[in-house]
Amino acid sequence: MKYRVEVTSSAAKELRKLRRSIQPKLMKAIGDRISGLADEPRPPGAEKVEGYDYWRVRSGDYKIVYAVEDEVLSVVIVRVGHRREVYRRL
Fold it and tell me: Quick one: which of 10, 11, 44, 81 could link to 86 by a disulfide (CB 3.0–4.6 Å)?
């Protein structure tokens, strides 16, 4: 079954705030991940965020943090940011 993938407005805003040179690479990674997450929300390389019901995948120095809602077949991207800052305000 396919999952529906959504990006929260705050995650989209975080992506827009990143350096212009990073944005295209991350957008491609998210696009690739979104199509992959729709088929398999917990792909190889994805890790559970300790203490939260979130998962994370890495793209270079940046991480994409998302929630998986199995009951409604939904994946919600909640944070996008540099790996050292992405866990603040989770």
Answer: 81
The span from the CA of 9 to the CA of 79, in Å, is: 10
State pLDDT tens for residues 71-90.
999 999 999 999 999 988 77
Q: Which two tokens stand for residue 45?
A: 């390389």
In the chain, what percentage of residues exceed pLDDT 90? 41
Number of domains in the chain: 1
**Which pTM was predicted?**
0.86
CATH label of the domain that carries residue 45: 3.30.2310.20
Cβ contacts of 5 within 8 Å, gap of 6 or more: 34, 37, 38, 74, 75, 76, 77
DSSP state of 46: -
Average pLDDT over residues 38-60: 90
* CA pair distance 84, 32, nearest whole angstrom: 23
